[in-house]
Amino acid sequence: SPPAHLSDWGKVAWGRLTVLLDGMGILTVADSLALERLCDIYADILQLRLTIADEGRTYTVQTEGGFLIKANPAVAMLADADRRFKSYLVEFGLTPAARTKVKVDGGEKEEDPLNQFFG
């Protein structure tokens, strides 16, 4: 079960990710703190997306010389959260490139027919 201190979205992410990672055979108890961070960041991303959808990507400020359009700070925060999220996804082998580097316990490997041809 997810840690009690996770937000509702974090708990949903925990449920989905534990099933996925356990199915890949790479989840251990030692991973729990990193998984908590991954879930926290995912929850942040969802919240920031809602904020941007509600407030917009930019806002207008009136100055002495007219109006100035500024970026909503949530946009930069979302970009930062996305970078951190990707970093954790890579650590858990949840990107296509990362899966080639993570040892996944999926049972016996099937013989690759190309190995017979080229091997």
From TrEMBL:
It comes from the Bacteria. InterPro entries: Phage_term_ssu_P27. Pfam families: Terminase_4 (PF05119). This is Phage terminase small subunit P27 family.
